[in-house]
Amino acid sequence: MPRFLILTAGQLQHEDAKTATGAIRYLGDHVAAVIDAASAGRTVQEVLGFGGAIPIVADLAEGLRHDPDALLIGIAPVGGRLPAEWRELCRRAAEAGLDLWSGLHEPLAADVEIAAAAERAGVLVHDLRQAPENLPVATGAARAVDAVVVLTVGSDCAIGKLTATMEIVLGLESAGIRAAMAPTGQTGMLIAGWGIAVDAVKSDFVAGAAESLVMRAAASGAEVLVVEGQGALTHPGYSGVTLGLLHGAMPDAMILCHEAGRHKHGGDEYEWTTLPTLPAIVEMYEKAAAWVRPACVVGIALNTSNLDDEDARAAIDDAATTTGLPVTDPIRYSAEPLVTAIRELLDTR
Length: 349
Fold this sequence. Notes:
Distance between the termini: 37 Å
Oligomer: single chain
Radius of gyration: 20 Å
Strand content: 15-25%
């Protein structure tokens, strides 16, 4: 794992900086610095509330002083295109001897200038969000694995499905249960070192990609597989990938992820939408799962990062009351209630 210089370009606190925040939270020892002119001179801890003393710098030249090995694009904007101003920075980073890592839909290796600079400097370009060849169409094979399969699902995008997945896996491992994550997005792939970015897969093969991930993770001998969710069934733009994951992974159970107080899908373009209630979302996922294999939502991971402690506890209590399910914020408090629900499922398997 290299030491990363992460580019967030003034958006470190924006929901699109999921790759950056995931790397900082789970690969912090491998983060040399963050390029973010809007927060330069501060530490990541001061800006995000986690991440420790990782410095935030104004530009590439300052970032190079922290001895990174690679530049990581930490932003995943809608559409996944490479902005013109980032193209020049990537080229200069390659010329400075840094490998390039990206989770954008637009591959860096396809950019003539960046590819030429990387070749001249002898550095590597890692485009995480590229679909592998020869993916199968799903056949339902995932239903036969010995492990308990848990899928994280969401009320919306960018609410913490990866974080919940990671915290559940870590919690299961701490409880002495062999657990594995099946990464389905660029940040999960970066952290785990493998996986498939399913939103880059042709629609016919999304379920097949999910099935392949479950089969590979099951081969590790894990007792519980936690599949990282993507999108949301109600999202006007990303519902398709969510349904493909749901039917391809064929989970035994689901963990619903939600941000406290969120009532519309994120982004100005979705102001016209309204999220269903939590009980309605639970019912929606269970009905959609049952089209191919019954699966229940067994817990809720509630993102309360926008609330103070008193309001966070109240939101958790309210969600538990309205749904009858165990609810926790796995970062603010603990993933233990979710781990317990999964352990009970494992015990009855």
